[in-house]
Amino acid sequence: MPDTATPPTASAEPTAQARGSLRLRLMLGAAIWVFAALAVAVVVLRGLFVAYVEDQIRERLITDLNQLVAYTEVDASGNASLSQPLSEPQFHRPLSGLYWQIETADGRGVLRSRSLWDGVLQVPHLPVPANGDGDIQTHTTTGPTGSRLLIAERMVTFPDYDKPLRLMVGWDESKLQGLIDAFTRTLSWSFVVLAVGIVGAAWAQIAFGLGPLRRLRGALAAVGNGQNRRLLGTYPREVMPLVEDLNAMLDRNARMMTSASETAGNLAHGLKTPLAIIANEAVALAERGDHEGSALLTQQVELMRRQVDHHLARARAQAAGEARGLKTPVSPSLIRLSRVLGRLSDCRIDVLEEAPPTFRGDAQTLEEILGNLMENACKWARGQVQVRARQGRFASGGMCLELVIADDGPGIPEDRFDDVLRRGRRLDESKPGSGLGLSIVDDLTRAANGTLTLGRSPLLGGLQVIVQLPSAGRLIPTALTID
User: Fold this and answer.
1) Can you name the residues that pair with 172 across neighbouring β-strands?
2) Which of 251, 246, 176 is nearest to 217 (CA)?
3) Contact by Cβ (8 Å): 291, 299
4) How far is CA 240 from CA 59, 212, 217, 245, in A?
5) Which of 4, 87, 200, 235 could form a disulfide with 239 if both were Cys (CB 3.0 to 4.6 A apart)?
6) What one-character-per-residue DSSP string does 260-324 give?
7) What is the pTM of this model?
8) Which of 414, 339, 345 is closest to 381 using CA atoms?
9) Residue 332 and residue 29: Cα distance in Å, rounded?
10) DSSP H or E stretch at residue 51
């Protein structure tokens, strides 16, 4: 079924387009900044932790080395021994990762810790100090398990032995890497939890900050569906200028539509007096015997009156369509029109209401649309007309008031739908009329921002007209039949 009445086309001027979400943009910005900052913090804190631990290990090695020097005794033959074991238990556990070793300056082993088991610390050769004693030095080498060792060593000359001995203490850095990895994991998970918390707090802050915009959107929706004429509510001072500008635009638009409607009404009323004079002249012509001229003049006057009424109704409908806050229930108009047309015709008029929403417009526009359609249906019906009012949806998805008027008459061929919507066109001259009924309904529907569709009734077999009009809420469901 072709849709012969389409909504007004969009303007060719550029229009605003939605691009992304403001909330999503703010959240992405906050999330990227938070995760980047915390990632940098993890790297910096890890570096500080590694430097701190390495300093502590060096201090510990130097302490153990000083203790080793203090406990070492060497006789005149160069035999070394410890006056007492070192206090660190790891020196006594095999391959514990903490080792000490005493050797001669040329690299011959003299004494080593039990933790070395059967291994030997392989350290590079160092020059012998001139006075036999040297400062503490630190370097790295390979340990007995193949891992990297941090070594603290010193050349020392003992009183009973004239050759310096090389005393060293080593610590397996794989132990350090384990500490660093554990610290990094703990720090990373802690910062992930912290980041999630910060992002959640940012989301709550953004949602709270955008609350006034949500309320403004609701207020605009209330204006759009006819609940209010202006934007209502309280808003922050940053949003109030926008609200005031929008209210000023709504007020200006309402004044313009009212002025246009009044101008059209004044013009129509101004034409009625000349038309009445011409009609009187037509009567005078008939009295003087010029019946043919009188009939022609009367016909043209009637056509002009219909044209004036049509344009007046269209201006009123357009003003009502742009106005806000107008709500017209459907039931009173349906009942009144059904009773009147039921008396004037021989048709049975069945009215079915399926909880229709109210019409967002004035009663005159609604009755003008319903009256023309129901009168046209009664004119061509064989005996039955059905009027259905229900909730529907526009092609765009929005809720609407849907009126379906069907009859059991001959109907209209599908290829002639466009013709009957043209002003003054009639497919059958056997019935009285001006050919303006469906054209007026089409114009009024468009002016009210609605749609009109012609087709064949699947139930009654005659013409079916579907009119979709803007709605403004729901009514209590009712059903009635009028003979």
Assistant:
1) 149
2) 246
3) no
4) 66, 10, 13, 9
5) 235
6) HHHHHHHHHHHHHHHHHHHHHHHHHHHHTT-HHHHHHHHHHHHHHHHHHHHHHHHHHHHHHHH-S
7) 0.47
8) 345
9) 56
10) helix 22-71
Amino acid making up residue 149: L
Q: Which amino acid is at 461?
A: G
Instruction: Compute the distance between CA of residue 251 and CA of residue 463 in angstroms, rounded to an integer.
Output: 42
Residue position matching structure tokens 């207020």: 219
> Inter-axis angle of helices 363-380 and 291-322, to 10 degrees?
130
Compute the C-alpha angle 401/404/409, nearest 5°. Answer: 165
CA distance 323 to 245: 18
Model pLDDT, residue 476: 41
Angle at 365 between CA 363 and CA 371, to 5 degrees: 95
Q: Residue ranges of the chain with pLDDT lower than 70?
A: 1-20, 126-133, 225-226, 265, 268-269, 272, 309-325, 422-437, 473-483
152-175 pLDDT tens trace: 888 888 888 878 888 999 988 887
Sequence-distant (≥ 6) Cβ neighbours of residue 408 within 8 angstroms: 381, 382, 383, 384, 385, 457, 460, 461, 462
